[in-house]
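Because showing beats explaining, we let one protein speak, sequence and C-alpha cells together, and leave readers to judge.
___
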Amino acid sequence: MISFFTRKRAPVVALLAIACTGLAACSSSSSSSAATSTSSSATASSSSTPAVSGTANVAYASSLTFLNEKVVAPAFKAATGYSYSGYANASGTLEADIAAGEIHPNVFQSVGSDNITPLEPKFTNWYIQYAGTSMVVAYNPKSKYASQFKAIADGSEPLKNLFTLLQTPGLKLGRTDPNVDPQGRDFIYMLELAQAYYHLPSDTVAKILGTTDFGTASSSQIYAESSLDSTLESGQLDAASAFVTQAIELHLDYVPLVPQINLCCSQYASLYKTATVKLANGKTKSGSPQVIDITIIGKPTDAGVAFVKYTLSQAGLALYKAGGFTVLTPTITGSTSSVPSAISSELGG
C-alpha cells in the first residue's frame, strides 16, 4: 500500500511513473535488408499500447480483497498500463477516513450506498451499482460441529436447524461490527428475517448474538472484516458471517441460505426492509439487497477513471461473475452529468 493511503501525519504521495523509451534505428547502410528491418521496428513501435503513468488508488470494502488484489488489479494493469494501489477496510471506516481527510483515494468501492451518500456533495455526487452478493454462514470443516453444518448445507437437515445450531452453548461464532461494516448489519438482518420466515421463538436472534443490544460493538463475536475469514480458517471459530462471494473465492465451507433471508434479490427488497438494526449512534438501518457501488472521490484522475471504466467493462464484470457475484446492469445514481465521459461511454452514454 503506497503512502497515498497513510494518515495525515504522513501524507506524502508516492506515485509510480512508467517511463517509455523509444527505440531508434540508425544505420549508414542503404541496403534493402536494413531498410526492411527499420521499417518493421517502426511498425511494431507504432502499434504498441501508448505508455501511461499514474496510479489508481482504490479504497474498497474488505470483502473485495481477494478479487481486487489477486484478480482485478493484475488484469487492470495489463489492460491499461496504469498502476494500482488498494486499501481495504470496513465501508463505514473508509467513509469516516475519507470525510476526515485521513485517506485520499481516487476510487471508493462500498457494499451498498450507505457509506457513499454521506460523502456527498463534498467528495462525490454520484455512484454506480454494478454487482450483487448475498449472505451465507461459513463454517470450519474441522469444527466439532462441522458434520451438523454440512448436513444442513447439503439439505440432509432442514435449513431451519441452522438457527438452533448457532445457539449452541460453546459454539464460537464470528461476525463484524454493525456500526461500521455493512456485512455486520447484513448478518443481523439475515437472522431477523430467518426468525420471522421460519416462525422461530422471538428471542432467537438475541440468543445467537449473545445480546439484546444488536448494535453493540463490544461483543466477543465481533472481529475486523479483514481478519474474520482467516480467524475462521485458523480454527479459532466454528462459524462466521460471510458473503457468498468471499466463501467461493476463499474456498470456505458454507451453508447457503434461501433468497427470502439472504439479501440477494431486488424482488424481496420490501421484505428485507422489515429487518432493522439500531446502531450505537442511535440511527436505525434497514435491510436491502446487497450491491457493490463504485464512485470517484475528489477530482477525477486518469488512472482512477480508467479503473472505474475497466471495472464496468465487459472484461471487468466477467471477473466479478467468475468470483460468484451477480452481475447487474451498471446504474448511475446521482448527478449523471458529473460522471466522467470515459465512464459514461462505457455504459453506453
Observations:
- The longest helix spans residues 32-47.
- Residues 132 and 291 are 4 Å apart (CA to CA).
- The mean pLDDT is 89.
